[in-house]
């Protein structure tokens, strides 16, 4: 934007009416100050058509000129593109191989953990079964011992009874 002098800025504070011929030019556009509002300022922006532009300004519609490329340059570009494609393909293959290796490691670890868990569960179950078997055998042995003691007691009671009957009878 065009800078206003300090004097014109101060004057604009006292005199709010813009100068009727206030026109600013910026490249391909023109800005006119209008007096349409009492509370502020308004502007009209006029864009110039591309045909009105001066020849020194760049043409927006024309593409940049391409320099003529030789066969050797085209060959070099093709070789460079082929090399980039090969390196990119090698990188993708490397990433895939790393991913597969990681998947194998994860599967191996999962199988190992599963086997460890199964082995531990089996050992725990065997321990509980052996403990249960020992407790059962101990209980049965205790029952047999009590039964034998009862039979001995019963035999003793019968003997005592027979002895009383023989004495009394």
UniProtKB/TrEMBL annotation:
Keywords attached to this Swiss-Prot or TrEMBL record, sorted alphabetically, are: Coiled coil
Any matching Pfam family: Stathmin
Q: Which residues form a coiled coil?
A: 71-113
- Xref: PROSITE patterns: STATHMIN_1 (PS00563), STATHMIN_2 (PS01041), STATHMIN_3 (PS51663)
Q: Which family does it belong to?
A: Belongs to the stathmin family.
Q: One GO CC term of this entry?
A: neuron projection
One GO MF term: tubulin binding
Q: What does this protein do?
A: Exhibits microtubule-destabilizing activity, which is antagonized by STAT3.
Q: What is this protein called?
A: Stathmin
Species source reads: Pongo abelii
């Amino acid at each position: 934007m065009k800078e206003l002098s300090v004097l014109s800025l101060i004057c604009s504070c006292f005199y709010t009416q813009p100068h009727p011929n206030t026109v600013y030019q910026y490249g391909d556009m023109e800005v006119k100050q209008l007096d349409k509002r009492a509370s502020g300022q308004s502007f009209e922006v006029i864009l110039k058509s591309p045909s009105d532009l001066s020849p020194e300004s760049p043409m927006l519609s024309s593409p940049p000129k391409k320099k003529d490329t030789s066969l050797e340059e085209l060959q070099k570009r093709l070789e460079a593109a082929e090399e980039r494609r090969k390196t990119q393909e090698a990188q993708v293959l490397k990433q895939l191989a790393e991913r597969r290796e990681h998947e194998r490691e994860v599967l191996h670890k999962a199988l190992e953990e599963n086997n460890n868990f199964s082995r531990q569960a089996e050992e725990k179950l065997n321990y509980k079964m052996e403990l249960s078997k020992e407790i059962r055998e101990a209980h049965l042995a205790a029952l047999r011992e009590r039964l034998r003691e009862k039979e001995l007691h019963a035999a003793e009671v019968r003997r005592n009874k027979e002895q009383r009957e023989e004495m009394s009878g």
